[in-house]
Design goal:
The complex is a heterodimer of chains A (332) and B (409). Chain A has helices at 2-55, 75-81, 84-99, 102-117, 123-135, 138-148, 155-165, 188-216, 220-228, 233-244, 246-261, 265-270, 284-294, 298-331; strands spanning 58-59, 70-71. Chain A has 332 residues and is mainly α. The longest helix of chain A has 54 residues, at 2-55. In chain B, strands 1, 2, 3, 4, 5, 6, 7, 8 and 9 form a nine-stranded mixed sheet that branches. The relative contact order of chain B is 0.17. Classes of the chains: A mainly alpha (332), B alpha/beta (409). The interface between A and B is large, with 40 and 37 residues.
Chain lengths: 332, 409
């Protein structure tokens, strides 16, 4: 009597163990499988975010070691808002965000429309060509632009010189004559236009791809119906393409706002880490890098990065309120 | 066979246990120098192995900041560009070499006085030993001098004659006096520093950028810019390199080390077209240089000190660097070496090394401040506003002074 019972219990214990291991691994395996992401995210995503928030209330020179960190309350923020260089950097950043952002879309939308509706066979090779600058290293691109924009030997100035001295086109440069040859990267009034040119050239191709994809989702029936009603090309673009492209426009403009407000590499390489003449090319991102990593004032840099984050957040929120919400409502 | 293998393994193991592994972090061209002399150090110190960590100039210094901040990961011996030394000097992150068992003070007499003042703090700490120096040198184009009919001595007689030369150059040639007027301001404010003061701060740590020295430096540069005497080319750009090849700038302020860059890669085809001088009006300044330091976190300080001494105090090692990379020796006893009397073909046969040595020994001592780098960048930024945007000198310097007070904390 006892034996089978024992056998039974042993058996059932084995079964129970097997079941418990089974349920255990059923329960935890998914977490273990997704854990690499969370571990990496905690180390490289969450921790730096929390730590930089903490840091923005400290005075800390990293070279002196962690022990020298000192709590200073809102001192870093106070210093920031009274720093004329910060306001200048913010002004530069907004200037570049608009001048380097708006043309991207003004070029990309009609271009994408032409590519999708007109150049069927050339569409993909051309899109690829426009996209190429986007995947080219910013550093390489900036160095090429630096050479193109050189004062004495730059191709851009050679071209302007040629046009300005040619009687047929010289009138276009009448107002500029005194400035020739243009010191693109040396004079503060030309630095921001030069950076904007680079930004527009490098990123409009990305938007062409986005808008082409957006255009492909617009049903052809609309265009056919409009054509039957006698709508011109312009009317089709204005009354069908633009309204239906709204969600994509919202997405693309949001990406541009976020990207342009964080502008770093382009001005950093083009006019140097100090922002060039009169700091005309100093953006918030390059200034905060300089504060933290070159002037060893991590607290101020952290405070500035949070202010920048709030500005980007606000900018995107405003964008959403005026532009995004309606476009999504329309779709329903 | 097997026994032999075990024996070899055991030998290697025991050897590696007894050995100290030193890590040395540096930037180019210092590595070319190390390639030549490291074997000798290893022969003299058979129980030491050296691992050389080579990073680009900017990465090297930024990486070092990170490692010092983290409290680990820094090499046992680190090369420091002179601009960065002051920043580390006050921090306590570098070993104080004036203490036992290092007693770095015993080597003070080996060096040019100004080099020593760069690595010693006011309270007597010494955080590095000089590796090489950058005596401030004015490079002049011989062909332009000939065209205009001026001699080097006439050009550098005074700052005014230097300006006059620029006017003559503009009037008679396609060249400009210099590539960028920024350089002349820097050369000026780095000379004539009152005794006991630094470039930007006085003994009490108050900034001096609104003083007459800076006003005159800015005026000098502004005159050059306003009269169109400079080509307005930023340094270390492709255009700048091209300017050396084309002779766009008739003169260039720099360190003696520029000679190495010019003849090796920037403008090798202009050999024989250059000549060098001290700065105008008998002023002597320094422009760059390297020091070797031991981070406080190193666990091999004794061996590290041997390596620092090897690189920084041995005349023959310093001369070797002079030959490989044109890095100017910090140890002044080397200046009697025959190599200093050799004519330099690139400079049209000028015995320029004697001149460099004379400059190195005459550069005045200047005290350093941990915020020198911040002050330098802010003043240079103010200078660009004055030169390019026509800003008033006094107000630009006043703003710079306020900004320095705000950021140097």
């Amino acid at each position: 009597m006892i034996q089978p019972a024992q056998g039974d219990s042993r058996q059932s214990r084995g079964k129970r163990e097997r079941r418990s291991w089974f349920s255990l691994q059923r329960k935890y395996a998914p977490y273990i499988f997704v854990s690499p992401f969370f571990i990496l995210f905690l180390i490289f995503g969450a921790f730096p975010t929390v730590f930089s928030m903490f840091l923005s209330f400290q005075d800390w020179n990293p070279v002196r070691g962690l022990a020298t960190m000192e709590f200073v309350g809102f001192e870093n923020y106070r210093l920031l808002f009274t720093d004329p260089w910060f306001w200048q950097a913010l002004g530069n950043t907004l200037w570049l965000a608009v001048a380097g952002g708006a043309p991207q879309h003004l070029i990309a939308i009609p271009l994408a429309f032409l590519l999708v509706s007109g150049a069927r066979r050339l569409r993909h090779p051309l899109t690829a060509a426009y996209f190429l600058p986007y995947i080219t290293s910013t550093v390489a691109v900036a160095i090429v632009f630096q050479t193109l924009l050189g004062t004495q030997f730059g191709v851009v100035n050679q071209a302007i010189n040629a046009l300005a001295s040619w009687p047929v086109t010289s009138w276009m440069f009448a107002g500029l004559a005194e400035q020739l040859p243009i010191n693109w990267l040396g004079r503060s009034q030309f630095i921001k236009p030069a950076i904007s040119m680079l930004v527009v050239w490098k990123y409009f191709g990305f938007n062409v791809v986005l808008y082409s994809a957006g255009l492909a989702t617009i049903p052809k029936d609309y265009y056919e119906a409009a054509a039957i009603d006698g709508a011109t090309n312009w009317q089709r673009f204005r009354f069908i393409t633009l309204p239906l492209l709204r969600p994509i426009m919202f997405f693309a403009v949001t990406l541009t706002i976020i990207g342009n407000l964080q502008l770093f590499d382009e001005p950093f390489i083009l006019v140097g880490r100090d922002g060039g003449t009169g700091r005309a090319g100093m953006t918030v991102a390059t200034y905060l890098y300089r504060l933290g990593f070159e002037w060893s004032d991590m607290g101020s840099a952290a405070a500035m990065s949070w202010v920048l984050f709030l500005i980007i957040g606000t900018g995107t929120a405003i964008q959403f309120l005026f532009f995004g919400k309606r476009s999504f409502e329309r779709r329903e | 066979m097997k026994r032999l293998l075990v024996l070899t393994l055991a030998l290697i193991l025991s050897a590696s246990f007894a050995q100290t592994n030193l890590r040395l972090a540096l930037y180019p061209d210092l590595d070319s120098h190390l390639d030549v002399v490291l074997t000798e150090f290893l022969l003299e110190n058979p129980d030491v192995t050296v691992e050389v960590i080579r990073r680009e100039h900017g990465d090297h210094h930024n990486g070092l900041v990170t490692e010092l901040a983290a409290g680990s990961g820094a090499a046992d011996v680190v090369a420091l560009d002179v601009e960065f030394v002051a920043r580390f000097l006050a921090s306590g992150a570098l070993t104080d070499l004036s203490q036992e068992p290092f007693n770095a003070g015993q080597f003070e007499d080996l060096y040019a006085p100004y080099a020593w003042s760069q690595i010693a703090s006011a309270d007597g700490r010494v955080v590095a030993l000089p590796g090489d120096l950058g005596p401030g040198v004015l490079f002049l184009r011989r062909d332009v001098l000939d065209q205009v009919g001026w001699s080097v001595d006439e050009v550098v007689a005074s700052w005014d004659s230097y300006l006059d030369y620029g006017r003559a150059v503009r009037a008679n040639t396609d060249s400009y006096l210099m590539t960028n007027a920024n350089d002349v301001a820097r050369a000026f404010w780095q000379s004539g520093v009152p005794e006991g003061e630094g470039f930007f701060f006085d003994a009490d740590g108050t900034n001096t950028v609104t003083s007459d020295r800076f006003v005159r430096a800015f005026e000098l540069a502004k005159t050059i810019r306003d009269e169109g005497l400079d080509a307005q080319i930023g340094d270390w750009s492709n255009e700048w390199y091209e300017a050396f090849n084309q002779g766009t700038g008739a003169t260039q302020f720099s360190g003696a080390w520029l000679l190495g860059h010019l003849q090796n890669w920037m403008a090798p085809d202009t050999a024989g077209l250059w000549v060098t001088s001290h700065f105008p009006e008998e002023t002597y300044g320094s422009w760059g240089g390297t020091h070797y330091a031991i981070p406080e976190q190193s666990s091999n300080k004794e061996a590290a000190w041997e390596l620092v001494k090897f690189l920084s105090t041995r005349p023959e090692i310093q001369l070797s660097a002079f030959e490989t990379t044109a890095a100017f020796p910090a140890v002044t006893s080397t200046y009697n070496d025959p190599i200093f009397g050799e004519p330099i073909a690139f400079l049209g046969g000028q015995e320029a090394r004697r001149l460099f040595a004379e400059i190195a020994t005459r550069v005045p001592q200047v005290s350093v401040n941990e915020h020198d780098q911040i002050a330098l960048e802010i003043v240079q930024s103010a200078l660009t506003e004055v030169l390019n945007d026509g800003r008033d000198i006094e107000s630009a310097l006043q703003d710079a002074s306020d900004q320095i007070n705000r950021r140097a904390r």
